[in-house]
Batch of 4 targets.
Target 1
Amino acid sequence: MSPAHLTVLSGPSGVGKGTVVAALRQRCPELWLSVSATTRAPRPGERDGVDYRFVTRERFAAMVAAGELLEHNEHFGNFYGTPREPVARQLAAGVPTLLEIEPAGARQVRAAMPDARLVFLTPPSMAELRRRLVGRATEAPELVAQRLARAELELAAAAEFDAVVVNDDVRRVVARLLELMAE
Ligand code: 5GP
């Protein structure tokens, strides 16, 4: 893997980014995953400082105002952002770094850090994405409908990315990501 590279994995909500990241980290333990700040409430089992930094809206706004976030965006009523300093520190130390964020945030990273490698994960089909969102069962049916509508818009962003990978098989996706990260 080339040293000190920033990879941004993005794609629509429900495409399976989390599963891919978990499998990728198993294959590549030296990869450092950024911990985002969010105003959303923790889900069962999520740990503060590990899965996310869970912050109040006031704290999030203060982080934005102080320029502490590399990128940030609102996603279904909650705010999400990537703390800038830890990413800079890892990259400066030569540690390969990964962000897992939604497409609008990825676009902001591209503008701030043109060398970042942007990878877009797509579902094999919209039908499959619907199946995954329903199967996840963490969201009410009206939220699933909202997420599908947003996914249609987000899929249009794929062309702006350096690589588009279809999430049909996690092992294949991880192998492809490792290839891209080695370029
Ligand atoms: P969830 O609430 O399901 O954990 O995440 C919702 C969406 O927010 C996902 O698409 C996830 O990739 C995205 N996300 C997580 N962290 C960040 C972040 O720091 N910045 C941006 N722009 N999106 C994020």
Target 2
Amino acid sequence: MRLIFMGPPGAGKGTQAKLIAAQKGVPQISTGEILRQAVAAGTPMGMKAREFMESGGLVPDAVVIGIIEDRLKESDAAPGYILDGFPRTLEQARALDEMVLRMGHKLQCAINIEVDEGELVERLLDRARKEGRSDDTEPVIKKRLQTYKEQTEPLIGYYAKAGILKPVVGTGSMAEITDRILAVINRL
Ligand code: AMP
């Protein structure tokens, strides 16, 4: 099982990726989480990434592509994985295609969780209150949504063209969304 979970910030892709990865027994691989750990540990990579993350922009492609390249080689990713928050640019998507091809694998589908923009801001502000993430202040949230539109949204067309895009309605309860995603995955 090799899947990509896409969607705007606040769509709930992290939560769903975790739930479904646990159910399917594959790792959920989140570049955002790996980067936050690097920032907290104060590694050179973390120090480089911090400024981009706190401004709501993207960390340079070479950095995140390197992260994923290393992570996919780990043994727990051999049977499959759910990528959460990667790729976020066309360059990352192309690099991922090359990596997967080199490994003799295939991406099965790109689940795109769709949520209205108005609802996203509300959800992100709510998360900011609960989790205290430093990139969840209102101006940063707006910048993250803009970054998403400019750099990540084009991936919808990229994966549609590749014939692996699966849109999922991202409104409703968490359980409803999980069921919708499972319905798609179980048909693969
Ligand atoms: P996330 O937890 O997925 O919302 O990611 C938090 C932040 O980490 C993003 O706003 C970006 O600054 C950075 N980040 C995570 N994944 C990527 C990626 N694939 N490409 C570039 N930056 C990323």
Target 3
Amino acid sequence: MTFKKSIKFPLILVNLKSYYETIGSKAEELTKIAEEVADSTGVCIGIAPQYMDLRQIDRFRIPVFSQHIDPILPGAHTGHVLAESVSATGAVGAILNHSERRLELSSIEMIVERLRSLGLISVVCASSLRVAMAVASLDPDMVAIEPPELIGSGIAVSKAKPEVVSGSVEAIKRINSRIVVLCGAGISSGSDVHAAIQLGTSGVLVASGIVKAPDWKKALLDLATSAAET
Ligand code: G3P
């Protein structure tokens, strides 16, 4: 699969959410570190910053994602996130249907199509195996399986619920073998990433394990080195 701005797998996608620690120049600082770690390990690291920071983060060489897109066309909408505006920042794609920003199935379908028509990647989150199967039928580029109860817990989905991860990989691939499967929630160490890849995923979605780490470089290196060695 070819995506713009060299996406390759395994992928470590770092979601900065709305964390205070990664606003503005701090998001740039983390992205610069991520770029260095990606260069030194050869592992692809993506960043999903806050909307306000999308354009400034895009001057780095690593792929940048929006945290959300709204199901709208350009026009009279106030306070929405428009796919075309995200594309104009240089971002390569967007996370959709995160547990902290859910969307209806019909909206996901519309946004996935709109992103594809703009050459952008869709990463659709799924809170369970059943949701994963439902969103897989909408033909997104990637599905990220993320049980909400483990998000921000420090307990890795790849170790606490391996059957959910492997079951989702199997079910998604059966529906559409083209879809790339990631997993997330509680990922914070290299061994969590190793377990995720062993379960059949092509990478991880991670937030607090990096953003809240006392040493961003050390934390990113741990994840990326393990991804490179698995
Ligand atoms: O989008 C990633 C996410 O929801 C996982 O969060 O803090 O458990 O890594 P966290």
Target 4
Amino acid sequence: MAEVQVNSMETSQKPGGNVDAVIVGAGFAGLYMLHRMHGLGLSARLFEAGSSVGGTWFWNRYPGARCDVESLEYSYQFSEELQQEWVWTERYAPQSEILQYLNHVADRFALRRDIYLNTRVQAAIFDEATQRWTIETSTGDRVSAKFCVMATGCLSSTNTPHFTGLERFAGSSYHTGNWPHEGVDFTDKRVGVIGTGSSGIQSIPLIAQQASHLFVFQRTPTYTIPAHNGPLDSEVERAIKANYANFREQNKQMLFGVDFQYNEASALETTPEERQREYEERWTYGGLPFLGAFADLLFSKEANDTAAEFVREKIRAIVHDPTIAEQLAPRTVVGCKRLCVDTGYYDTFNRSNVTLVEVSDSPIEEITEHGLRVKGKEYELDAIVFATGFDAMTGSLLKIDIRGKGGRSLKEAWAEGPRTYLGVATVGFPNLFTITGPGSPSVLTNMIPSIEQHVEWIADCIRYMCDHGFACIEPTLAAQDAWVDHVNEVAGATLYPTCNSWYLGANIPGKPRVFMPYIGFPPYVQKCNDVAAKGYAGFLLIRGHDGEREVELSRG
Ligand code: FAD
Ligand code: NAP
């Protein structure tokens, strides 16, 4: 083996020096990657900007934060013991419990010795002479690593839009994605929430219960399906745990890697009565499986319209004031922006202390010292909550000064939108892996199986390189170009590109409009497996400088 130090004992307490691998980020992805590095016998260091592990679940502590994929699925499956012994208390686990789970994982698999908290990676520079990455951190350390794995998260770079006057605001302001650990007491406060995506939908009903008055500033109304959350049914838990591996395996065969109880029928070939019954059953069951009601919902506008109208009717039935109900009723395609799952969202607008303020036609003009102004009217506020989302999928990666071959930055390489092979690697950046990177199913799946699949693929790839004496791996341009075309082609056959979603980068001014996730977990996994089985088809495998030979094993 050329340069990888197998069975290295290096577990230094000091972040500088040489290691086999650096991992960035201590969420679900980084923690499991570190565990697999340990399994390979490699020395690894994990850097995390936050003061604890947990990633998403460390940062997003706003009222009501919880997963919207059911707990028994929104969890790791790599360890049968772990999935058997951990007990989730609710159908959809709250943020605090998921954070507790990830801390348990860090302890159970002895990960903490290699984790450096409060440490932001600022740069990663590839040196062609040594075929190693130099990683520079906010604590002034420099580490040299053979492999660099970005586990920086798809939704980890918060987006606070530019509002004139924000700095003048005399009250308190918060972003849902960076919530104070001690919590926020809104009692007797006039609160404004900007944003009605998943974070807004989850927090608005709870903030409304505390605040003296809540103003919801809505630019685009959102489809949301009731969660019907509650204590986890012990019978359901027992049945799933009795056959957990099978349950997981079946779910991996689903389009989004999650049990949506897919119906193969077409909405358009079903009678209106049957359609209504199907939607009603799913509304009563609750959550994201609503999208599995008919096979053509995400492919045919006409089919989608039937689901959209069903939800609009529900809104009209829940919200007493017909004008407010119409303002809350979305007109876009259901599922085009991420479908939300709520507890009492629409009903919140029946409260006398809640006001819906539409900012679609007339945007928020400015933030003033005492509130914010829309259409010339000032809304006086003690606190503003930005539920305005994230610079998704590329934000955290591009904040790091990543430089590959020839000193070319990732920012330059992705200037017209991210270009990857399988979402896991990019031409010109050898031995740099991105977990759930753009071009992989990632955010269009239950993210935990997607993360596990990427981590396992990367670990297998590194093992293969070690076994065969390869020092570097990077995609061929032809394979990358073909993959990017394929990702676009698949997206183009669906309704996804028809709205201004963060999947397209449309929420960030100036961001190239490119559909970033790959649609379809099973075909994606098949492709990754085929690539590996063919000796990493579509990748260039390069021997160490003493080995001298570049081997392109096969073409993508
Ligand atoms: P993250 O959990 O985002 O972790 C990335 C970590 O990298 C962060 O801790 C960050 O601080 C760190 N980091 C980033 N850049 C640097 C740097 N330069 N230096 C050092 N550290 C860095 N997905 C689902 O499938 N189902 C759900 O129900 C669901 N609910 C969600 C709810 C919320 C509120 C949000 C925001 C997202 C949700 N997601 C959900 C998506 C969620 O992000 C993933 O499920 C998963 O937690 C991602 O794990 P990760 O490890 O890839 O990234
Ligand atoms: P988001 O879905 O991007 O929503 C942001 C909201 O802010 C949108 O309503 C957006 O309006 C609004 N907004 C942005 N800029 C604005 C401006 N200048 N003026 C007025 N409104 C503005 O972000 P998010 O709610 O944080 O969710 C992001 C993703 O994280 C979700 O899609 C999901 O994948 C995940 N998440 C999941 C859960 C869960 O239930 N488990 C909870 C939270 C987050 P427009 O729509 O008009 O752009």
